[in-house]
Amino acid sequence: MADGPTINTIAERAGVSIASVSRVLNGLPTRQETVRKVMAAADELGYVRNAVARSLKSRRTNQVAFAMADIGNPAYLAMLRQIQPVLKAAGYRLVLHSTDAVVADEIDVLHGLGERYVDGLIMSPLRVTDAHLELLAAARAPVVIIGSVPEGTRVDNVRADSRTGVRLAVDHLYSLGRRRIALVNGPLDTVPGAARGAAYREALEDLGLPYDENLVQVGDFYRPEGGRAVAELLARVPDVDALMCANDLIALGALDVLRAAGRRVPDDVAVVGMDDTDLAAASWPSLSSVSLGSAERGKVAAELLLERLKGGEHEPRRVTVPPHLVVRASTAGAGPDERAARGGSREAGGAGERGAGS
Amino acid sequence: MADGPTINTIAERAGVSIASVSRVLNGLPTRQETVRKVMAAADELGYVRNAVARSLKSRRTNQVAFAMADIGNPAYLAMLRQIQPVLKAAGYRLVLHSTDAVVADEIDVLHGLGERYVDGLIMSPLRVTDAHLELLAAARAPVVIIGSVPEGTRVDNVRADSRTGVRLAVDHLYSLGRRRIALVNGPLDTVPGAARGAAYREALEDLGLPYDENLVQVGDFYRPEGGRAVAELLARVPDVDALMCANDLIALGALDVLRAAGRRVPDDVAVVGMDDTDLAAASWPSLSSVSLGSAERGKVAAELLLERLKGGEHEPRRVTVPPHLVVRASTAGAGPDERAARGGSREAGGAGERGAGS
């Protein structure tokens, strides 16, 4: 590039200051007239703009990638909402990958680090395979994993704690005087299904409640399946007085079925969901739900990565974001929902429709 | 770069085929052993990887940017969910910007095109200012605008039609025999507030219904404000039998207040929202809502941009995505909600929590 045109020759040709050229070429706000002059001069001189040349020099791209397992999953979108502004504030552009939870796609993203198109990567894989681990060991750029990794993996890692989350929910239901607390779970051959099942059993034992297989119903992590599971449960155990649901969608299905069966929530049956999605505040009755801190995990992951990008050479870090229970009408009786306003303002952009929608 | 190491010299040094080197350097799936050999050889030879050198040669980055006004807005997230896979399938990485609806940020993004860090841009601004137009005219890469642009603007443009959307809702309520159809709107000094107000008035006139100022209540585009507006409306017009709400959040607030007032929905008062967010299917009763086609607008925008990137030199295109009404329990009486399943599967990733949450 050294032999090619420089900002000096462009400034001369455009008849503007070198500072102006720099501002324009770096995309900083500049008077339109100046922008046009500089762009014209740059074109005439065949100047190749030049994030590219700059990164050749610095080997930096000022880009960070976030590889999310599922772009349709509110939990990952909550992470994204936190990651984006943190990186933006630090001057990094965000490259977004959605791997559709396909391991091969995640492997491709890790391989791609060799291309040096980003300075770092935040990845939230469904599960970490040996292939992940080999590539993480050889990674050409800092990586932060949101999710669990095997002990001893030398990578910064931010994780949730669904076990404690289930515990919080069961303890809450117990504190309300409920003693027939059922678990409506997803498939047991999934990591969360297994973990939530084990956590439920532990929680009961610690509370001195008997573990009753009849109180455990396995369906899937979706609303209709959740509803069907609860219908079966009600038929088998009519006197159930509380439902711990393994995610919010299962809980929404539970509310559908309880309503149809004429069971009052929470008077007859109290219901707790998990993940604390926007849907929890929108449902009626509004849904108490365990937050696994998706937003916080995104924020922490971005901050850990920024530290590495500043050259932090410390040992790999592991941060566990503690869960918390958001109590709403489905366990606390109807009442003002402190989350409605926030749920709303997160959607302020309905305002966004102002631009697109008219 | 020509004088530096090449994939030939790396292949020699690593003792693998040139094809293998190419696969590794391009981040394609490759045996771990090969990856390690190639990476080692590349390091020893001081090979600078090299999306960078390739784009210097081709002047292409294989990246496309999407600048969304508000990363917290479900309407934009719906666009993003469609844009990302379309670009991924075409081999482009997605660079995500959230401008927080700040014009200066949008201007920066347009300026930034001069940096050539992307091959094209999709932007969804709240409103298009003169500064936008000047930069669009001088843009160094193809741009597609989601939203309205002034007549004659030479840029590909995908827009919604909220006017027809309001019409669909009012006609639907009329067809249900409702004759006291109120509008619960956002601020009239916003583009959508003004447009939806005008569309409501037109719709009534075409139906031969009198325009009654008492039936128009202006609040803001959020749930609590929507609820307050409906409370005022009920006090002033107790016999109102239908509410056209300017977005889903207003409609959720309306359901809160109607429930508290003991009005049955839809028997006493039918309610329609707008934007058809995930919240509409989660509410109870589930909310009939006008979809302004956010997802479709994102898909069309991505496809238009890809055509430009293939070198399409045709005239600027304008595509208007027609709205459609999604009828649910708030106007149709309770019943199976055909959207619940989809609302659910969009959140299959609750499954995503499988990785993070255990």
UniProtKB/TrEMBL annotation, chains A, B:
SMART domains cross-referenced by the UniProt entry: HTH_LACI
Superkingdom assignment: Bacteria
Domain HTH lacI-type: 5-58
GO terms of molecular function: DNA-binding transcription factor activity; transcription cis-regulatory region binding
Alphabetized Pfam families for the sequence: LacI (PF00356), Peripla_BP_3 (PF13377)
Gly residues bias: start-end ranges: 346-358
Biased composition, class Basic and acidic residues, residue ranges: 336-345
Cited PROSITE patterns: HTH_LACI_2 (PS50932)
Residue span of region Disordered: 315-358
Protein name: Transcriptional regulator, LacI family
Keywords: DNA-binding, Transcription, Transcription regulation
Entry keyword annotation includes DNA-binding: yes
InterPro entries referenced in this protein's UniProt entry, alphabetically: HTH_LacI, LacI/GalR-like_sensor, Lambda_DNA-bd_dom_sf, Peripla_BP_I
